[in-house]
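TICKET: design request
STATUS: open
ATTACHED STRUCTURE:
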């Protein structure tokens, strides 16, 4: 080694040591928030200080002292609020006009699970960039690409929202497909997009298989076929899932299916097509979550005018009946020119059309999202002891919900993912597990 190089090496190790010392000292991050929104109460507080240490909030308030060595993030010109939740998305599938004419059965045939897993990683970052810090991923993920995504994020390999994933959708024979006998019986094409479970033994085993391979919620087809599940069969799914602490979401598309799912005491109902005023009253009585997946008319080709009008009036009816509402999209397609996050936030249009008060739209996107995801005591609210996830926007979302379309800042687990409107996710990438390898 030449002298000059040695000197350079010595100098750079001094710099590295200084950086390391700074990193060790700057364990505390302080956010100066111009305004802080509490969606639960629908209130705003001015000039708040939020302290973060070890990936968690440690203090919040107007008179919190900022430690001398804290890294200060100045959001004094912005409004800080908790992260958003999409209670029903499919990050590991993206059907599109070319080449499959938006028929997802073909996407499943064309795209192998490894490709879908990598696409899911990208979709996850797109969601996080739009302010969604939690996504419930409700199946159609090939051979557990959803679990792979969740594990990769939890291990610390890549940035992404907290994923509450369902594994493979469990249903009666065929799932949501209508395959030929050759493809279904000879080639078992339904699996792994759906897990056939027609008898009580098969139902129990299907739930256990999903749990073994990383599901954090169970998703069933209540009535994808005329031979959908009975009340007792749904109760069996709920009881088996409960042993592992998991809740059950039902894909429901008929009035009869909705009635059975509600009677069985399901945790959440996906889609609004099987719902009506009577079902809404029953759901409100039983406290069943509604993930209505209300496609806006502005996403051309993904709903019809008649269907949209029905969706808007059903959402309004659910709100009037005090059904517990979540913000959910069922986004599983490509809209040219838009990220998955931009597609998801577009669903605000339906909520505005249903004239849901702004504070309640925000509540559906935050507080209720944490509850349906069962994270409300660990992640979501900006409170000491909880995971440090938050976002910031330029205006006040309680006055104008559309400010959520331009998220300027995103923090996940105490790390800055987006600042000044630009993604800066370097801190998230690790060569190996940084949160222990026992994450499954
Ligand atoms: Zn769906």
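STATUS: resolved
RESOLUTION: sequence designed for all positions
ATTACHED SEQUENCE:
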């Amino acid at each position: 080694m030449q002298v000059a190089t040695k000197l350079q090496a010595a100098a750079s190790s001094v710099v590295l040591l200084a950086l390391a010392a700074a990193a060790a000292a700057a364990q505390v991050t302080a956010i100066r928030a111009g305004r802080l929104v509490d969606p639960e109460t629908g209130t705003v507080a001015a000039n708040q200080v939020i302290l973060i240490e070890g990936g968690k909030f440690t203090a919040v308030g107007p008179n919190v002292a900022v430690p001398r060595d804290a890294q200060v993030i100045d959001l004094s010109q912005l409004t800080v609020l908790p992260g958003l939740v999409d209670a029903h998305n499919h990050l590991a599938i993206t059907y599109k006009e070319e080449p499959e004419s938006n028929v997802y059965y073909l996407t499943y045939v064309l795209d192998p699970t490894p490709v879908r897993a990598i696409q899911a990683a990208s979709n996850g970052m797109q969601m996080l960039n739009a302010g969604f810090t939690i996504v419930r991923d409700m199946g159609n993920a090939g051979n557990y690409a959803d679990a792979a995504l969740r594990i990769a994020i939890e291990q610390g390999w890549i940035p992404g929202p907290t994923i509450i994933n369902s594994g493979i959708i469990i249903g009666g024979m065929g799932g949501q497909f209508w395959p030929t006998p050759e493809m279904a019986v000879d080639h078992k094409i339904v699996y792994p997009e759906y897990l056939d479970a027609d008898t009580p033994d098969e139902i129990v085993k299907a739930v256990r298989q999903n749990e073994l391979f990383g599901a954090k919620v169970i998703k069933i087809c209540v009535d994808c076929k005329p031979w959908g599940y009975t009340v007792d069969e749904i109760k069996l799914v709920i009881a088996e899932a409960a042993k592992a602490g998991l809740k059950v979401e039902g894909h429901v598309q008929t009035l009869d299916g909705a009635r059975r799912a509600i009677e069985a005491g399901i945790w959440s109902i996906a889609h609004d097509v099987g719902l009506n005023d009577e079902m809404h009253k029953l759901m409100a009585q039983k406290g069943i979550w509604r993930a209505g997946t209300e496609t806006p008319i502005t996403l051309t080709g993904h709903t019809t005018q008649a269907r949209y009008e029905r969706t808007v009036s059903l959402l309004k009816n659910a709100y009037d009946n005090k059904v517990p509402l979540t913000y959910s999209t069922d986004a599983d397609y490509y809209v040219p020119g838009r990220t998955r996050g931009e597609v998801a936030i577009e669903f605000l249009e339906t909520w505005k059309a249903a004239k849901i008060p702004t504070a309640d739209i925000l509540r559906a996107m935050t507080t209720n999202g944490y509850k349906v995801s069962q994270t409300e005591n660990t992640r979501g609210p900006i409170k000491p002891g909880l995971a440090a996830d938050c976002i910031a926007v330029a205006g006040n979302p309680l006055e104008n919900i559309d400010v959520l379309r331009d998220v300027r800042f995103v923090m996940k687990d105490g790390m800055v993912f987006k600042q000044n409107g630009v993604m800066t996710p370097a801190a998230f990438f690790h060569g190996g597990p940084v949160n222990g390898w026992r994450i499954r």
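CLOSING REMARK: The first helix runs from residue 3 to 25. Residues 88, 90, 138, 270, 330 surround zinc ion (CB under 6 Å).
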